[in-house]
Amino acid sequence: MTAVRIAVIGCGSIAKHRHLIEYDLEPNVEIVAVCDIVEGRAREAAEKYGATAYAEYETLLKQEKIDAVSVCLPNYLHAPVSIAALEAGCHVLCEKPMATSREEAQQMIDVANKNDKKLMIAHNQRFVPSHQKARELIEKGELGKIYSFRTAFGHGGPEGWSVDGKDSWFFQKDKAFIGAMGDLGVHKADLMRYLLGEEFTEVAGFVESSAKENSNVDDNAVCILKSASGVVGTLAASWAYSSKEDNSTVIYGEKATLRLEDDPNFSLIAQYTNGEVVKYELGGIQTNDSGGQTTSQVIHHFVTSITENTNPPIDGEDGKKSLEVILNSLESAETKRICG
């Protein structure tokens, strides 16, 4: 099989600790080019993976013959660079959130469709074993009717792992647009859509910027979400969980309660109303604190969608729907109204 020729645009932490490592583990992939405006970062990655370094993505797209691109840039560049790569005839794996507006997200989808190219958004939570098992149990009807949920994603903030530390673009609204909600909350919006198998039609958001100095983006948020069938739950995203990362979800059903990544020893616990308790050891969820996320399966699924010509598991439409939940929460916080 001919190798899939890959370029990684943006050589910060997410590229260094996930994309490049995982592409290198794929037998049918060749990392051809890397790009970063900080030329030293691009050179370092190029030397490690035998690629060509670029400082400008436009030059890379023009000069290199590549099949696919990973976009690992600040949020405000996700849409324009993804669109440029799609127009250049490349499949695109874009980091989350896929865009900073509904309009940008739709443009990405339209260009991908026009050029018959894959567009995948890097929502890795769907591939966590406990999350996949929970979806299986829900689909089998083991919980009966779903009543409610609570899901949270919080840690001490990007300064602990971003390549630029406290000076990271994550804290700058003109580059990030969204703070903790775009960094963490959108992952949980996507996860709950995946687990419940339905969309959220109403969103109420309470969003604050209170935990980080020299930051003008949200760093603490709690949202109330209501699904199409009437499931009501909460979603929390925070950069203020300084003692320990929380990446847990609890789902309350008619016949059972599922606790995901909520116990130090068992990644999934099913507590049934008849008194039965089933504890699953499925391997812990990967965290930045535990040494990176080098087996997220995101890159594997993206490459497979190219080599087998299948639809990516989280395509542009999926990415847009998860983004809309977050955009609705921000709009709700601003207008003091329920949005949907």
UniProtKB/TrEMBL annotation:
<dbReference type="InterPro" id="IPR055170">
    <property type="entry name" value="GFO_IDH_MocA-like_dom"/>
</dbReference>
<dbReference type="InterPro" id="IPR036291">
    <property type="entry name" value="NAD(P)-bd_dom_sf"/>
</dbReference>
<feature type="domain" description="GFO/IDH/MocA-like oxidoreductase">
    <location>
        <begin position="131"/>
        <end position="259"/>
    </location>
</feature>
<dbReference type="InterPro" id="IPR000683">
    <property type="entry name" value="Gfo/Idh/MocA-like_OxRdtase_N"/>
</dbReference>
<protein>
    <submittedName>
        <fullName>Gfo/Idh/MocA family protein</fullName>
    </submittedName>
</protein>
<dbReference type="Pfam" id="PF01408">
    <property type="entry name" value="GFO_IDH_MocA"/>
</dbReference>
<dbReference type="InterPro" id="IPR051450">
    <property type="entry name" value="Gfo/Idh/MocA_Oxidoreductases"/>
</dbReference>
<dbReference type="Pfam" id="PF22725">
    <property type="entry name" value="GFO_IDH_MocA_C3"/>
</dbReference>
<feature type="domain" description="Gfo/Idh/MocA-like oxidoreductase N-terminal">
    <location>
        <begin position="4"/>
        <end position="123"/>
    </location>
</feature>
